[in-house]
Design brief:
By secondary structure, this protein is an alpha+beta fold. It contains 6 helices and 8 strands, in the order H-E-E-E-H-E-H-E-H-E-H-E-E-H. It is 36% helix and 21% strand. The chain starts with 6 loop residues before the first helix and ends with a helix.
């Protein structure tokens, strides 16, 4: 049996929640340039490479072993990416940062990405690193490690080059996430 959330589960969760368009909370932060590895074992510096090389980013925090909200969050990002079509390539980067760097190796993240159907997406990185480096990033994001069975969804969107981010402690409907990314992309060009 697949632990991948169905489209119905995504839509049910999105419809059950109120609109989140007004719930994005902006904040400025200084992100560490921590060394990380992606699901293809490629090295990345978090701030100067994974973030700053794209004008607009979408970031979620995941456990590869999670069977509840993490696959749902990833599915929402994948559906938003699909809704954006060609706009989703080039100026936009999708980042999924592990909350369990001790267990979530690049290989495990590759399996998670494959199960989500996005392993081959060039503009999506599933990132891991040392516990210390991931903790430094989480502190800058005002997030923290939590138990896999007791964690809340969190999304970040923003301008990767600045970085100016917005945070959301909910799972947005894919259409709202896509609209927010489109708004940021069009705003970053002007």
């Amino acid at each position: 049996m697949s632990s991948r959330p169905t489209r119905r589960a995504v839509l049910t969760a999105a419809l059950a929640a109120p609109s989140v368009a007004a719930a994005w909370s902006p904040f400025a932060t200084v992100l560490p340039d921590a060394p990380l590895l992606d699901h293809r074992r490629r090295p990345w510096r978090f701030r100067s490479e994974a973030m700053a090389q794209c004008p607009v980013i979408a970031l979620d925090l995941i456990y590869a072993g999670c069977t509840s909200i993490c696959p749902l969050s990833t599915r929402v990002m994948a559906e938003a990416r699909s809704l954006l079509g060609d706009e989703a390539v080039g100026p936009l980067r999708y980042l999924s940062l592990t909350l369990d760097p001790d267990a979530d190796t690049p290989e495990r993240l590759a399996e998670y990405a494959a199960a989500a159907g996005v392993a081959e997406a060039d503009n999506w990185l599933f990132l891991t690193g040392t516990r210390r480096d991931v903790a430094a990033i989480l502190r800058a994001l005002r997030a923290r490690f939590a138990r896999p069975d007791d964690h809340a969804p969190v999304f970040f969107v923003g301008e990767g080059r600045i970085p100016r981010l917005q945070q959301l402690f909910a799972i947005p409907p894919p259409e709202e996430l896509a609209a927010e990314l489109r708004r940021l992309w069009h705003g970053s060009r002007g």
